[in-house]
Amino acid sequence: MTKKGSILVVDDEPIERQTLSDILRLEGYHVEAVATGEAAVDHLRLNPVDLMLLDLRMPGMNGLDVIKVVTRSSPDVEIILLTAHGSMDSAIEALRSRIQDYLLKPASPTLILESVARGLLRRAAKIEARKHQDSASSGENAKVTLGDGTVIDFGRRLVKSGARTVFLTPAEGRLLKIFTENMGKVFTHRELVLLVQGYSTSQLEAPEILRPLVSRLRLKLARIPGLLRRIISVRGTGYVFEKEKSK
Description:
Blueprint: E1 6-10, H1 14-26, E2 30-34, H2 37-46, E3 51-55, H3 63-73, E4 78-83, H4 88-97, E5 101-104, H5 109-138, E6 143-145, E7 151-153, E8 158-161, E9 164-167, H6 170-181, E10 186-188, H7 189-197, H8 205-221, H9 225-228, E11 231-234, E12 238-241
């Protein structure tokens, strides 16, 4: 079976550790398992890992301690926290700092596999977002000329239309670059936060993070109406940058 991702299971309970490993291996994941936080950190130093299933309460180095180390040393590793009902306060603390998901023990195989699939998708999206940012900063496809003669220079972060020039912040430049490279595609608020800012957020939080950025961009582009009118809000979803209308 094709290996779909590399996963590290970290749990001090042997039965739990084996059960999690078996569930994931049956789905085609490459799985390694360790019993302590210290062993998890050592493993990550020497081996590529895409995602970690991490028990919160362990003797010695607990789950929160591991998260602090992994955040510094292996920021691309997705973390799913395994916690009991009595540890919810600690789980919430972890959610605020680094992780994007947690599972209450004992979790069903379906919930485990769904959470892992979401985590791996988040990881892939974050890496793709970083590629977009690297592409913008390296000057690749630095200029776009639209049909009305408007020039968008992403390397210099400016938009020029006739005698009018608008300067953009890095985030505004990334947002406009994503729009112009994907004309006609509807992006959700969450997708744009991830692509522009480089981190994942909840469906409720994403619009609150994105709207001020879009408002600032629109305010600047008010001097270039032809460009401004192409940034369209899609009610209840996100935004789309309309394609140029054929003459």
